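Researcher: Good morning. I'm working through a list of sequences from a screen, and I'd like to move beyond sequence-only analysis. For each chain I'm collecting a predicted structure so we can compare shapes side by side. This is the next one on the list. No need for commentary yet; just the structure.
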Amino acid sequence: MKIGDIALETGFSIETIRFYEKQRLVKNVGRNANNYRDYGEEQIAQLVFIKQCRNIGLGLEEVKSLQSHLENPQSDCGEVNRLIGSALKKVREQLKLLHETEQQLKHLNSLCDHSGASHECGIMNELRTTSNF
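Model: Good morning. Structure tokens for this chain:
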């Protein structure tokens, strides 16, 4: 299968697939008679795995770590569990920050409910102060 076909099948761009090859996340790509890369089911499975990992917010090093567990099925999955636990902690921290940002935006939004000169705008005046955030 050519790279354009695998791109359509996986939803990755050609550039992204090549990037993952350079990062050694997509492996064992063969060559056909005219020396074009020849992708198969193994590479599709690798790309699906990468996509799943990236969709849950894992970085390249984390994907590489998890991929090594795929390649070594007898390895201890404790590291996998720690990695996912760490990712979960990061997401919870991000959610907390987003909630705080939401509260700040609600507060700002409540300060001005009319149109008029921006020098009279409660939002603009609040943004110039540092005491409330």
